[in-house]
Amino acid sequence: MPQTAYVEERPKNFSTPHRMEAQQRTVPGRSFFEQRSLRWTFTLLTWTCVGLFFASQSLLWDQYLFRTTITWERAVTINLSFYYIWACIAPLVLWLGKRYQFERMSWPKAILVHLPTSILLSAAQLLVAEVVFQSFRPSPLKLLEAFRAIQVSFAFNFHMNLLTYWVILGVGSLRDYYRKYRDRDLRNAQLEAQLTQAQLQALKMHLHPHFLFNTLNTISSLMHKNVHDADRVLARLGEFLRASLKNSDVHEIPLREELEFLRRYLEIEQIRFGERLKVEIRIESGLLDLKVPSFILQPLVENSIRYTVGSHTGGGLIEITAGQHQGRLKLNVKDNGPGLVVDHAVAVPEGVGLQNTRARLQQLYGDNYEFAFINHPHQGVDVSITIPVPVSRN
């Protein structure tokens, strides 16, 4: 077992609220019949509003233009009947609009279809409307009077009917275009999410072989010195790989599980370095259930061990801490080694593990993270990761 001091500290200057997972509220999906009922209700209300609007117009026209008097009940009956007929015709217009759309290459064909269709349907609607109007009369009109009524109806309403056809067609086209662009945006968002998941998975798969090769090298060197220790490393490696494969599709896990992964790794390194490796882990109270990127600490600790213990005959101390401040979680891996001998004008070099760590943080949090790598010559290296923590909810 590694010589680790595992302490869960109380914060000194502030209280750490326990994190509560945001509950995803799922609204039960409406059934097909409920959706259809709502759609028909909305359509009926729309046409009713249109009919009432023109009924009020009829009252004004008859009073101030034709100097006649028409009752509100008759105006409502005539106009609602008129536009309810259009409500029955509208599905056919919308279907034709979907089938013959005004696209860049097909608009001439759409014109050839919709222009005569609008004339025919406008005329048919007027004929049906006139039959309905006559059914409300107390006594039927004679043939000549009925023909004269149809002429008057065409004179007053035919152009409005043409406009109604094209308005229905335009509204249907706008609805279809909105749905098309909405579906396209949804598909793009899904593809972007899938790409991000694939990139994260590739980065994680890149980390596992990197760790595996280093461990196999350790086993290879131990085989010539201590077969028993080599066997122990193999056993710990198996435990580590089983634990990592268990959450292979999960990119964020509780800090508690991440520390358990790290413990298995440290057991392997402890067998390799023995008393030369000392590790202290200090976690502030209430942070073990916070989510962190999976497999995020092991590359940092591996880097510290390599420069602190692996390349020097003396021992080394690795300090791993976690704290929370102003709604952000900060993870630190610090060593007391000699530090890296680099030119101060040049950035600290990053290996495969650290490069992948930075790339994974970028994929998960965008620019809302900090990854600081501070080199202190003759005093060690301090690596810190700061990531957002969702606000606790009651």
Q: Strand pairing plus helix content: what structural class?
A: alpha/beta
Output the radius of gyration. 38 Å
Total separate domains: 2
Low-confidence stretches: 1-29
Query: Helical element count?
Result: 8
CATH class categorisation of the largest domain: Alpha Beta
Strand line-up across the major sheet? 1-3-5-6-8-7
- Give the fraction of residues assigned to helices: 55-70%
Q: What's the shape?
A: rod-shaped
SSE ordering: EHHHHHEHEEHEEHEE
Distance between the termini: 40 Å
The name of the CATH architecture of the largest domain is: 2-Layer Sandwich
Which secondary structure elements does this structure contain, and how are they paired or packed?
Blueprint: E1 4-9, H1 32-65, H2 72-99, H3 107-135, H4 143-223, H5 227-246, E2 252-254, H6 255-273, E3 277-284, E4 291-293, H7 297-310, E5 316-325, E6 328-335, H8 352-365, E7 370-376, E8 380-388
Parallel strand pairs: 1-3, 3-5
Antiparallel strand pairs: 2-4, 5-6, 6-8, 7-8
What features would you describe in this structure?
- With 394 residues, the protein is of the alpha/beta class.
- Helix 1 (32-65) crosses helix 2 (72-99), helix 2 (72-99) packs antiparallel against helix 3 (107-135) and helix 6 (255-273) runs parallel beside helix 7.
- It is rod-shaped.
- The chain has 2 domains: 4-14 and 199-388, 2-Layer Sandwich (Heat Shock Protein 90); 34-188, no CATH class.
- Strand 7 and strand 8 (380-388) form a beta hairpin.
- Helices cover 61% and strands 14% of the residues.
- The chain is built from 8 helices and 8 strands; from the N terminus they run E-H-H-H-H-H-E-H-E-E-H-E-E-H-E-E.
- It has helices at residues 32-65, 72-99, 107-135, 143-223, 227-246, 255-273, 297-310, 352-365; strands at 4-9, 252-254, 277-284, 291-293, 316-325, 328-335, 370-376, 380-388.
- The longest helix is centred in the middle third of the chain and has 81 residues, at 143-223.
- The strands form 2 sheets. It has a 6-stranded mixed beta sheet.
